[in-house]
Amino acid sequence: MIPAAFEYARATTVQEASELLRRYGEEAKVLAGGHSLIPLMRLRLAQPSALVDINPVRELDYVVLEDGRLRVGALTRHVEIQRNPTIRENLPLLAEVADEVGDNQVRNLGTIGGVIAHADSAGDYPTIAVMLDAEIVTNKRRFAARDFFQGLFTTPLEPDEVVCEVVFPVARGPHRYVKFRRRLFDWAIVAAGAQRLDDGSWRIGLTNCGPTAVRCLAVEQALAQGVSPEEAAEHASDGLEPSGDLRASPEYKKHLARVLTKRAILQAQ
Ligand SMILES: Cc1cc2nc3c(=O)[nH]c(=O)nc-3n(C[C@H](O)[C@H](O)[C@H](O)COP(=O)(O)OP(=O)(O)OC[C@H]3O[C@@H](n4cnc5c(N)ncnc54)[C@H](O)[C@@H]3O)c2cc1C
Predict the structure, then answer these.
(1) Fewer CB near the last or first residue (10 Å), C or N of the chain?
(2) Which CATH number fits domain 175-268: 3.40.50.620, 3.30.110.70, 3.40.50.300, 3.30.390.50?
(3) pLDDT for 6-45, tens place per residue?
């Protein structure tokens, strides 16, 4: 299908992007990789009055290690996250996750800022951001990831607010992201992430098991008490209320949450 008519403007700085968004008003949208927004526009599920293209904004495309934290600019593409040596050395889990996002075409254009701003419960980076207590930084504010993802496709972003970077802690220890899907390039039906931190504690997260990414505190606590991964993973579905869809019922998703969490921890070890 062909999208409804819209205005188009290119920004070269974050400030210019924000000014253009203000000028075009509430119905304007940022355009990054376009791999979520354009399909929605073609289906006319989104009909923005204007697109502000941030692809020329070079100041949003960087990966920096600073004060023991990894700052990833919003315009960093999945393919760069897969390959970037600083990410591979300091947060290899993130590179592993980028490996699993879509296909080559999606990875060549899609951006981390786009996944974060889109806030799809099936998106992979929000899970890593929530389980590792990452920060989302915009041109106006900073958010703990757990406060940023407020519901399905729902964030506190204001119409003229631009996601600028995601700040992750460094975590070089054992890790694994296990994604369950029918075909290689599909979105996750359910996915589970496991990361052991330097102090020996575990962080566990789930994708597509609720309206937002889930951090599995019950599993983390069980592991901290010395419970086996097999037993600890049984807590992965505690309190989960996933919605069913064409691919999986809520019960099946809860089952997957337990199985994939167990696999993620065991494979990380
Ligand atoms: C076939 C296919 C398979 C896919 N599989 C996966 C998958 O397995 N896992 C996964 O996580 N994703 C998957 N995706 C989505 C992909 O990762 C997209 O790249 C991503 O969801 C959106 O990023 P984008 O840069 O393309 O953003 P866009 O599509 O350009 O924008 C998405 C939304 O975010 C807003 N936005 C973008 N950047 C910013 C910013 N810096 N500040 C404020 N708002 C912003 C836009 O206004 C829009 O509302 C898939 C996509 C396709 C087409």
Answers:
(1) N
(2) 3.30.390.50
(3) 999 999 999 999 999 999 999 999 999 999 999 999 999 9
